[in-house]
Amino acid sequence: MRLSRSFLPTLKENPAEAQIVSHRLMLRAGLIRQTASGIYAWLPAGLRVLRNISQIVREEQDRINAQEVLMPTLQSADLWRRSGRYDAYGPEMLRIQDRHKRELLYGPTNEEMITDLFGQSVKSYKDMPQTLYHIQWKFRDEVRPRFGVMRGREFLMKDAYSFDVDYTSAVASYRRMMLAYLRTFQRLGVQAVPMRADTGPIGGDLSHEFLILAPTGESGVFYDAALEEQDWLDTPVDTESNDALEAFFNRVTAPYAATDEMHDTQAWEAVPEDRRREGRGVEVGHIFYFGTKYTQAMGVTVSGPDGAPLHPEMGSYGIGVSRLAGAIIEASHDENGIIWPDSVAPFRAAILNLKMGDAQCDALCEELYAAAPEYFLYDDRPERAGVKFADADLMGHPWQIVVGPRGAKEGIVELKRRATGERSEVSVQDALTRVL
Ligand code: ATP
Ligand code: MG
Ligand code: MG
Ligand code: MG
Fold first, then answer.
1. Taking ligand 4, which is a single-atom ion, which protein residues have CB atoms under 5 Å away?
2. What percent of the chain has pLDDT over 90?
3. Which of 106, 112, 118, 157 is most exposed by smallest CB count within 10 Å?
4. In the predicted model, what is the mean pLDDT of the chain?
């Protein structure tokens, strides 16, 4: 993208309404604009971030054989009456009436709809297990929308739902999803620690929230540093073997990790002092096994191996895709701006032409840009070098390729790594090889 022709409205001043750093930076870097309380438009660079996050989430869901669907945002109230949640959900649900006075709602989540869809089509245990997911906008009329996209009212969520014939199989689905989440967050370049969460009346130990450490997080978190050392991208887990899944689950859940709601001071004191990590965290994901709660309430059965009908066991699994855009910035920025992890950055590199109109600078920049126009943001504005540097730092591109008249004569550019500030003088070819 050529900066001179793009819609990337950066702001020099800190917007007064933004209380936390990610919100400030998302507004200043031209990623989002608020259109109503807790509702945001995503501008070109922000949309690229949202797509990159969604794509990694999608690949990791597909990897465990979850299948993507797309359910609508509007749902009928009758569907929710069948589960008993229409009245129970309370004021967070946005209720709507159409011209025929039929009651609808903007979905805050999709358990009812997916249970109904599943029940209409799957009649036998032979067609199970199934895990379905979608990446779709949700609406929750939060009492206090705040912190930009971190607590919006309209927000993008990946929600998956598993259907299994029995408890053992449901546990395997849950554990597979836990692995997918750990891999997803690792690929997004963030440390999201799984923490035991409340299961309510369901009981058991099959509810975990994933939290990213950030001082502005809404939950207090306590965890064992051993969790920071786990690497799930390079550790193969056989997701078809229940034993392998169990060993994996035990490894993840053995070290202490809890939010303030579930904190157990006695267990905490058993963690060696040098490994205790304590702080605030942002919930970016939540996985939950709830058994036959919805299939029973909504009367969904399949025929079991013995011919008798059974209620499928379910779990649901959410990732806050739009919240992650903010949470990643909370975890990765400095005083000059955003530091995007490579995997989510809107552009891999900015090309900074320090002397527009200089034949050699222009030619070299064009050569670089032509190599991968979809990955580069070419700053071809007639601006001072200082402005270009500041905007590139603010927008947080992982690399900056700086082209000035002195180096350009010899075909040399300066390559700067945003995360470390490290600079090196390299040839055009070397710059391309490192960045792409
Ligand atoms: P919170 O505790 O922050 O209110 P939640 O527990 O109500 O979140 P879940 O129902 O578990 O949320 O939804 C799954 C995921 O959706 C959450 O882990 C979070 O990442 C995201 N999410 C929930 N509410 C919002 C919101 N208002 N804005 C942005 N993302 C949200
Ligand atoms: Mg909530
Ligand atoms: Mg929560
Ligand atoms: Mg939750």
1. 286
2. 97
3. 106
4. 97
Ligand positioned closest to the Cα atom of 318: 1
For 237-279, what is each residue's pLDDT tens digit? 999 999 999 999 999 999 999 999 999 999 999 999 999 999 9
3-class secondary structure, 123 = coil
Nearest to 315 by CA among 207, 209, 237: 207
Interatomic CA distance for residues 338 and 329, integer angstroms: 6
Cα(283) to centroid(ligand 3), Å: 6
pTM over 0.95: yes
pLDDT of residue 130: 98
Question: Which helix H or strand E contains 388, and what residues bound it?
Answer: helix 385-395
- Both tokens assigned to 373: 């126009």
- Of 323, 324, 328, 330, best ligand 1 pocket probe by most atoms within 8 Å of the beta carbon: 323
Q: Do the beta carbons of residue 104 and residue 74 sit within 8 Å?
A: yes
Expressed in angstroms and rounded, the spacing between residue 279 Cα and the centre of ligand 3 is 17
H/E element, 137: strand 130-139
Cα angle for residues 365, 370, 372 (degrees, 5° grid): 110
- Using only C-alpha atoms, the chain has a radius of gyration, in whole angstroms, of 24
Pocket test for ligand 1, best of 26, 34, 283 (most atoms within 8 A of CB): 283
pLDDT of residue 200: 81
CA of 94 to the centre of ligand 2 (A): 14
Angle among Cα 173, 328, 141 to the nearest 5 degrees reads 75
**Low pLDDT (below 70) residues in the chain:** none
